[in-house]
Amino acid sequence: MDECDWLAERFEQHRPHLRAVAYRMLGSLAEADDAVQEAWLRLSRADTSGVTNLGGWLTTVIARVCLDVLRARRSRRERPLGVHLPEPIVSDQGAIDPEQQALLAEGVGLALLVVLDTLAPAERLAFVLHDMFAVPFEEIGPIVGRSATAAKMLASRARRRVQGAAPLPDADLTRQREVVDAFFAAARDGDFDALVALLDPEAVVRLDGAARAGISVVRGAAAVAEQALSGGVGRLARMAQPALVNGAAGVVVTAEGRPIAVLAFTVRQGRIAEIDILADPERLRRLDLAVLDR
Fold this sequence. Notes:
The protein is 54% helix and 17% strand.
């Protein structure tokens, strides 16, 4: 085995970790895969003779690549911040495969990714690396051009935002599914009171329907229940296939064999706290939904 093959083999050992870091940083599998490919290119061109911890070296590289992507997003006026849902990971209801499990460890639901998208790039990097991957602040500081103390402050600010805005879902998937099924049943029956009873009083629906329009948001149990009834959720239920969306109960709605929406539910304390709906045709075409055909 020559040096290039040896290096490629070692890189492949770290690929799941690098992809997981990039997905949390970017909220997009396509961009995460591009970032991982860029990390490989940088590794293949670098002199690694003095590198004693390749995993740590690669984590720093992927972090820098993702930071550049996040900063570029902020500078592009055609993509306003915080107006599009992150890219969901859709799995068969029965199980999540090992590769997806690595991506979704630490409970990376859409609700968390939505909040992460509101953070400044340096805050997001500090939070993701430290709180999710236990990277020391002494290593995070140089990546963002700050001291270790400043990096710690960035992560602390991000942590407060996340804790205040990203609800932790119930761990019981069976119970999650029961609540979601009851929601669709109430919508089919046109039962407003039953819908309200299934929703958290501060329930939020985010609908990402088109690239230019961005997200529309509805807040409050009564308003969400009204939207469910007026928006034809009961009709959609007949075309909905149960699925796991970022590891939580969700559905994929199909018409004539094509996906027209992915719905992710955050169930907390037995009630639906958040519903995230991706219905942008262009973005749906980019999702890997083949797992549902198995």
